[in-house]
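Please review this one:
***
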Amino acid sequence: GGLCEALELDRPHVAGNSLGGLLALEMGRARLVRSVTALSPAGFWTQAERRYAFTVLSAMRGIAGRMPVRVVEGLARSAVGRTVLTSTIYARPGRRTPEAVVAETRALAEATGFARTLRAGGSVQFTEDVRGVPVTVAWGARDRLLVPRQGVRAKQIIPRARLVRLPGCGHVPMNDDPALVARVLLDGSR
């Protein structure tokens, strides 16, 4: 609520991806917003799915941290190399520019809050309905980090939510199909 007040926003429409999707849903649960669109939101996992996601993220960070920048830059020059570096989060990693892949890989390696965020996420489980606020939950059909069946679980927990499947999209669908994501965001805020 404090951020919205500071920005002088009265119940904005919010959207978020992954952890941002979970935060958007929490804002909706607190009725601080007009609508929520959550893209592959965290928190709808089983313990095994959470362990899997955190293990994958930790491995990605470890690899990124050990890889010299010149190696990352070399891999990022080809679509195959970009696939090696980012296929866990993008369904269409070849669409990323080499510069974006290098920047993303370095950001993952250097993220100061990474370990703290994973520790905090270990106990996160979204278990309560969101009432009085329209909710759209969209999930990439090719999400390899937070698997699509978690969207079905989200629909069970938030029965009035609109569940949207994002064909051809991975965990970060904005890259894979920007036009589709834009339509989902616009529809969710109506």
Remarks:
- The two ends are 22 Å apart (CA to CA).
